Amino acid sequence: MSVTPRSRPFTFAALGPVAATALVSLAVSPALAQDRLPRVDLLTVDGDKVDLASYGENGKITVISFWATWCTPCVEAVPHLRSLSKRREDDALLVIGVSVDPDPELVRAFVEEEGVTWPQVVDSEFEVADRFGVRGYPTYVLIDHEGRVVYRVSGWSTEIRQQLRNEVARALRQAKKGRKAARESAR
Predict the structure, then answer these.
(1) CB neighbours of 60 closer than 8 A, spacing ≥ 6?
(2) DSSP states of 44-87 as a string?
(3) What does pTM read for this prediction?
(4) Of 131, 135, 13, which is closest to residue 75 (Cα–Cα)?
(5) pLDDT digits (tens, 9 = 90+) for 93-112
(6) Domains defined for the chain, CATH in brackets
(7) What is the DSSP letter of 138?
(8) Are 85 and 62 in contact (CB under 8 A)?
(9) Residue 131 class from Cβ within 10 Å (0-12 exposed, 13-18 middle, 19+ buried)?
């Protein structure tokens, strides 16, 4: 049975580690998802409209965190995402939160209370989540400096935290190599 965000909120933590690992690979199948950031206007928690694709057009590595305030593993991941976004400020990395909560005010209050400093948009109609094939929360999508999806995973655990950190580091190294090659070819 396929569980969609609209039919019933779902987190992988409720399954236990073995079942969650099996479902993660199904839930984030690249065949189900978009390869680039979609052009779609979403509201930020400040009420501004932003085109999600504009975040990916800056040549930075982008981590998209699909989450919700009711999702315990999502909330548990906040300190790691905070650390990741702060440690990588000088690098070409951007973390973006995409909340599927129905109430932007609830998201705004959570962001303020938890000291979330990375950009947050609200996807209460699941437009972006559906385009990326998100079936459980949290889901993380890593976009490389050329705007391509290079990694995706759902759930939260020590292993996923380390995998995400490793994949971000790999993408940053690739971006650095690409910039170096571009400079050398321009000479």
Answers:
(1) 92, 93, 94, 145, 175
(2) ETTS-EEEHHHHGGGS-EEEEEEE-TT-HHHHHHHHHHHHHHHH
(3) 0.78
(4) 13
(5) 889 999 999 999 999 999 99
(6) 12-186 (3.40.30.10)
(7) S
(8) no
(9) middle
